[in-house]
Amino acid sequence: MIVRIMGEGQVKLADSHFAELNKLDDDLLEEMESGDEPGFRRTLHALLDKVRELGTPLPDDALEPSELILPSADATLPEVKDMLSDDGLIPG
């Protein structure tokens, strides 16, 4: 799956990594719903760091369609709320 981190670029991520990422996504959703800004910030950074760690960066000139778009590390809680689906940021 091709994942875009807004403002950074794209990475190719194996489907096998999504169980691990979904746990962080669930934590992020919980923190957002409770208004836990420090927890939200910490978990958002952990989620993006994990995507960077597990993914393989695509070249900057690659024009692959992104199947998943994640917010930038400096996104605000309201901005991320606007990006959410019922499953959080990551489907499944």
TL;DR of this structure?
The protein has 92 residues and is α+β, with helices and mostly antiparallel strands. It has helices at residues 18-34, 37-54, 77-83, and strands spanning 2-5, 9-12, 56-57, 68-70.
Order of helices and strands: EEHHEEH
Principal-axes geometry comes out as: globular
Oligomeric form = single chain
Helix content: 40-55%
Strand content: 5-15%
Tell me the radius of gyration. Answer: 13 Å
Distance between the termini: 13 Å
- Report the average pLDDT across residues: 90
> How would you characterize the largest beta sheet?
4 strands, mixed
Uncertain ranges: none
Q: What is the number of beta strands? A: 4
Kindly report the spatial arrangement of strands forming the biggest sheet.
3-2-1-4
Structural class: alpha+beta
How would you describe this structure to a colleague?
- The chain has 92 residues and is an alpha+beta fold.
- It contains 3 helices and 4 strands, in the order ββααββα.
- The chain has helices at 18-34, 37-54, 77-83; strands at residues 2-5, 9-12, 56-57, 68-70.
- Strands 3-2-1-4 form a 4-stranded mixed beta sheet, with helices on one face.
- A hairpin with a 3-residue loop joins strand 1 and strand 2.
- Helix 1 packs antiparallel against helix 2 (37-54).
- The protein is globular, with a radius of gyration of 13 Å.
- The mean pLDDT is 90.
